[in-house]
Each structure stands twice: as structure tokens, then as C-alpha cells.
Amino acid sequence: MSALDERRLIARSAAGLLDGLGGIARARRVRDAWPMFDRSAWRAMAEVAWPGSLVPEAQGGAGLRLDETCALLEAAGSRIAPEPLAACIAAAVLLAHSAAPAAKLLLQGLLVGEQVVVPVVSADRLWPGESPLDAARAGAGVRLSGTAPRIADTQGASDFLLGVVAGGEFIVVQLEASSRGLDVRTSRAVDGSSLAELQFDGLIVDQERILLSGAPAGLAFDALADGLCLGRAAQLVGLTGEALRITVEYLKTREQFGRPIGSFQALQHRAATMHIEVAVSRALLYEACSAYGTAQQGRAAAAAGARACGAALRVVQDCVQLHGAIGFADECDIGLFLRRAMVLAGAAGGEMRNWRRYAEFTPS
Amino acid sequence: MLRPESADEQRLRREVSDWLQANTPDTLRQLTFRPVPGAIMPWYRKLYERGWIAPHWPREHGGMGASPAEQVILFEEMARFGAPDFPSQGINQIGPLLIKFGSNAQRALHLPRILSGESIWCQGYSEPGAGSDLASLRTRARLEGAELIVNGHKTWTTWGQHAHWMYALVRSGEPGGGHEGISFVLIDLAAAGVTRRPIRNIAGDEEFCEVLLDHVHVPVANVVGELGSGWRIATALLNEERIRIGSPLLALKALARLRAVARLTGAAGESYMQERIAHMEIEVETLIAAYLDALEQLEGDGDAASASACLKVFATETVQRILDVAQEAAGGMRALLRPLQLRAASIDLSEMFLQSRRLSIYGGSNEIQRSLIAGRVLGLADARRKPS
After folding, report:
1. Which of A86, A228, B58, B209 is packed most tightly, with the most Cβ within 10 A?
2. From residue B24, how far is each of A150, B31, B41 by CA, in Å?
3. B282 and A306 in contact by Cβ < 8 A?
4. Res B302: pLDDT
């Protein structure tokens, strides 16, 4: 079986599982019930080792390749799965690299679907007037104060992974969401997911919760950030492809002026342009996967992120347009795709920030 | 290319770079127009002697048998170096077609001369009245004994005035027969009755011409395949043609031009331009990924028609978008007619941009490609067909 065939198989089976859990109707239900985390769905995903997709089998994961994991995430995007799957998959990889007992415990909890671990990774800066995150050594632990950059897609988070410089050294720490001295301010996003702002007021992180430190911490956190970008790009590509598929079906069935509206050339050409966007964005995603773990990793992630964000928002907005008035009604599913695309694009950094990030890799 | 390169691939990259350095005169670097035969064919021949003239041909027919990644490496190094465009109708169009459909005699006569550059080829498809609607072509070929007598008028024939041979679609069947009755023929342009008239394009270059055929005698041995099977033969290789047009080579060259112009004018130091350049670089990486994917689909049993049409549109429009940004980087000097001479270097600011307008028109216009994608890939019915 070729790599493409393997990805197709994984995507099909993942889509099947998600349809069994309720498909897009489930996404709508979760959206309307914010703050709601579908625990039974999360456990069902854990049962088939989705959070542990990239963790080696010897450590309890599924041992998939990165491209296979992206195929899985494409399927998750296509069904607008409301779980922060990319975040947890990326977190699991970092946890599997840490020798700290707390990391092993947290990984176990994640793999069985009891815990939800979200890395604090953002392309954003703090907004003007906000006090930056300060991390100071406090004995063997670390004291945190200030604000972390806002993060998207945080629903259900039981723990966060934070990378920070303390005492001149980069460390990665585990933060339990319920910690004293940590205020997790959660806001409702348009798709029913959560946006979180982490405010620290003298929170002390014990030595036990320092999962990685020094150079390995920096490498692991960079790899996590790049992998997370690719994972969100994958969800965006899958979401966009499905939105287009639904729209093309609509073009074939909706009739006006005595014929299917898909027979009008203006709409045919628009749909063709959208198809091209999805196809090339998907090609770049998997090419970027092959650069993971090499010197091109960051550049590749920025490229795939930029393209996926831009293509998703352009194409899904066109999908709304091609539905005509019904596309603008909440009862039509296409709006759910736009809402989730907004969240995932925000989480992935957006098109323009990723251009900026890419530019930083280019020698001037 | 984003994917990691093997040791062999890295070695190839160095070899290509070294060879270009050692074998390409400065007069052939960073050009916009295809240089005239006298200037380019000696270099073409050297590339042939090195074995690199036909990366995508199979080895048994004199090609490199290069993998998709190796082809991209060749393109990247050529673009980085500013290597010239060379005539490709032989290598990219008629060569692969003869490999697939030609008789042994046709292959034996023409393939070696295409590779060595001894024969330059042009395409005789479009006519004044038959562009996108090529099947409506009217150039007539009347069978008389062992010859076809050809009368008609071909146009937009790239390098027709420099070519030795033209492969053409002619109507050997009844007039008005559409796809039926079209034959694929090879015409020796030295034959009596052939007149060529150059056409000046929007960039001021006379790169193509009209070819007038007045009772030109074409031996039946120069028919490829059967009489009347011309349309089937020409369309059989359409996917490959689109993929060649969709190769990243031109986009890589356009990107190199953009960077050079931005450096020249100082726009490269401004953040608004850095982000646009980053965007264009991402589009080129996207194109490379799509190209590699399309080649893999072509070699496997994937959907080559879809991949090739998408690639043609994306590649050509990406080149145009890159050159839009290059124009912005050139600022007030973007309309300078002649290349700017600066110290030892010469840099064109307007020609490549004007030349690029043809990319979305030729090889099946991008509107035709979109209609193809909508019809065959997305299954959207043609409005011309009767509604149910």
C-alpha cells in the first residue's frame, strides 16, 4: 500500500467513527451548549488511540507517521469535530519525551481520555497594556506572574503546557487548570469552542511539574509548535475539502431558471478555482510533513499554515456565497464550517502572521 | 522543495550547479525572451551531451529517466542560475508523442535529432478561427496516392520561423466533422508551399508566427497513427503537456527575478514587501508540492486529468502573481522598456511581466481548464446541454 492509500484508509475510518458519534449534527449540539465538552466522544477517540497518534506504540500510542496523523486530522476537520485534537496529539509527543514522572502520569491520563492537555502556543503577542509573563526561580520551583498570550481551541482543558524562560533557562511546565494562582478566563468562540486567557498571580510551579529544561526543552517545544501548526493546517484542509464537496452537491441539486445552478459557467468556474485551492493546499501540507524533523521544519510549518488558513477562509466564504440565501441561514450546515475555520485559523496564526514567520526563515 | 534530499540528490544538485557555471555564457543568463537559435542551440547541444536535455524521457529513448524530485532539483538550480529557456516543443511535446504513438521509422528519424537539437520543432494546432475550439480547425489535407496535399493557415506557432519541422492537426475527413476526420501529421517546413510570417507580441518579441500552407505535399509516412485518429492522439498526451506547462521552472525564475528587483530598488528591506515575497515563496513551494504530486498521479493510476488541469491553472497564475509583486517592487521604474544596466549586471523590469500574460491563455486557456475541472472532476453539468 502506498503512503497515499494508507492515509486514505485512516481518513475513511476516522470519518466513520466521527459520523458514528453524530457527525456535523454533534458539532452543532456542542456549539449550542457552550461550555460543553463531549466527554464520551473524547473517550471514544482515546479508545482508538487518537490523542496518542504520534506516540510510539511502546509508550501506549498508535505509532502513526506524521502524514497519517494529518490524514486523521483532516477527517476531524471534515466533520467539524469540536475536540482540541491537534493540541492533545502535539502535547502527547512532548510528554512522551520527558522523563519526569509527572509527564508520564499526565500522558497516561491523556491517552485514556481522562485528561485534555493544551499547549500554550500562540502566534500572537500580548495586547498593548498587558503585563508580560514573568517566570522567576523560587527555590526548586518557578513563580509565574503576568499574562500568557491568548490561545484558541482550549475546550475541556484539564492541563496546559507552558514554555517559559526562568532563571536564564528555557523550561516546559505542566499547569493544572485548577491551580491556585492561575486564572483561566474562558470565552465562547463562534463554533462553541473556548478561547482562553491565562492570568498568573504568583502561581508556584513545583519542581515536579517542570517536565523539560534547557536545550532539549527548547527543541521539544519548537517541534511541538511546528507540529501543532501542521495539525491545525490538516484540520483546515479537511474542513475546506468537505465544505467544497457539500457545496458542489448543492450546486447539482438546487435549481433556478429551470436548471441546476451548477450548470451556470460562473459558478462552475468558481467551484473549479476552489477545487484547485484545496488540492494545492493539501499537496503543500503533506510536503511540509516530510520536512518535519529536518532543518526545513519551521519554514515548512509556516508555509503550510499560511496556505491552509488563507485557502480555508477564502474557499469556505465562497461556499457560503454559492449556497445563496440559505447559506446565510444558521440552519444550513455550511455556516458551521466557516465558524470552525475562523477558530482553527486563529489557532494556527492566520495567513499573514505565517507569512511574517516564513519571511524570518529567509536570508535577506 | 521542502522534503529532505538524499545524498545522491544533493550530489546531483551540486553537479548541475557546477555544470551551469562552467558551461553557460553570461550572455545567456537572466534573459526574458528565448534567445534566437544561433545563440541558444550550442548550449542546448552541450546540455544534451551532458545527458540532461530530456529529464522526463525514459532512458531507453535517450532521456534522463529523472525522478520527480530530480526534475525539481534541475529546475531549482536552473532558475537560481538564471539559465536560459530553450526550445521545448521537441522535448516536451512531439518527442513524448512519438515515443508513444510514432512508427519505428518516425522515432528513429526524429527522436535523436530532437535530443541533439539538430531538429527544432513547432506546433501547428491553432488557426485564426480555431483557438479554444480547436476541433473546428479547417486546414485541409486531401489524400492523393501516397501523399496528403495540405492547404490552410496555422497561427500562434511558437518559434515557427526558426523551426525545421511542424507537427500539425489537419482535417483529412469531411469539412465540419469536428473531432472526426482529424489527422496528426509531421510537416517538413522546408517543403514547397510553406510561408511563415512572424507575429510581434505584447512584450515586443517575435516569438511566434503564422504558418501558411499552400498545396504542401506531406508523405503518408508522416502521418502519426491512422488517418482520422489525430484528435485521439493529440488529446492522449494533454495531461502530460499540462503538467509540463505546470512545472515550477517558470515560477522559480519569476521568483528569482522578484528577489533581484526587490534588492535592486531596496524594496526588499521594507516589511510590506518582505511579507509579499514570503507569500510568493510559499506559493512556489505549494506549486512544487503540487507538481510532485501530479507526477506521482501520472505515474501511478491517480487522477492525472484533474491534477494536470489544476496544475496548469495554478502554475501559470502563480507566475503572474509573482510578477505582479515584482512590478510593485520595481516601483516607478516598472515600465522601463530595456533592461537596466547596473554595474556588471543587466536586469529587466518590464519584459517578463508582459511575456507572462500568455501563460494563462496558451496550452488550453485557464477558462477552458476551469470548465474541464468543473465538468470532469466536479461533475457539474454543462449549461449547453439541455436541462432535464
Report:
1. A86
2. 54, 12, 12
3. yes
4. 73
Q: Which helix (H) or strand (E) holds B295?
A: helix B271-299
CA distance B256 to B271: 19
Question: At a CB cut-off of 8 Å and minimum separation 6, what does A326 contact?
Answer: A332
Query: Residue A71 is which amino acid?
Result: A
Per-residue pLDDT tens over the stretch B277-330: 999 999 999 999 999 999 888 877 777 888 899 999 999 999 999 999 999 999
Model confidence pLDDT, tens digit, residues B145-179: 999 999 999 999 999 999 999 999 999 999 988 89
Give the position of cell 517541534: A223
Interface with B, mutate which of A252, A287, A356, A360 (most B CBs under 10 A): A287
Establish if B60 touches chain A: CB-CB under 8 angstroms.
Answer: no
Using omega within 30 degrees of 0 as the cis cutoff, is the peptide bond preceding A35 cis?
yes
Q: Specify the pairing of strand A159-166 against strand A151-152.
A: unpaired
Q: Is the per-residue pLDDT at B274 higher than 60?
A: yes
Distances, alpha carbon A339 to alpha carbons A14, A275, B58, B164, in Å: 22, 20, 49, 60
Average pLDDT, consecutive stretches of 10 residues, N- to C-terminus, chain A (364 residues): 93 98 97 96 98 97 98 98 98 97 98 98 88 93 94 96 96 96 96 96 96 96 97 98 98 95 96 98 98 96 98 98 95 97 96 95 75
Catalytic residues of B: 241
Using CA atoms, how far apart are residues B27 and B369, in angstroms rounded to an integer?
A: 37
Dihedral sign for Cα atoms in the order B333, B334, B340, B342: positive
Q: Do A296 and B4 touch (CB under 8 A)?
A: yes
State the pLDDT at residue B324: 97
Under 8 Å between Cβ of A175 and A182: yes
Rounded (10°) CA dihedral A145, A150, A155, A160: -40
B151 burial via Cβ count (<10 Å: 0-12, 13-18, 19+): middle
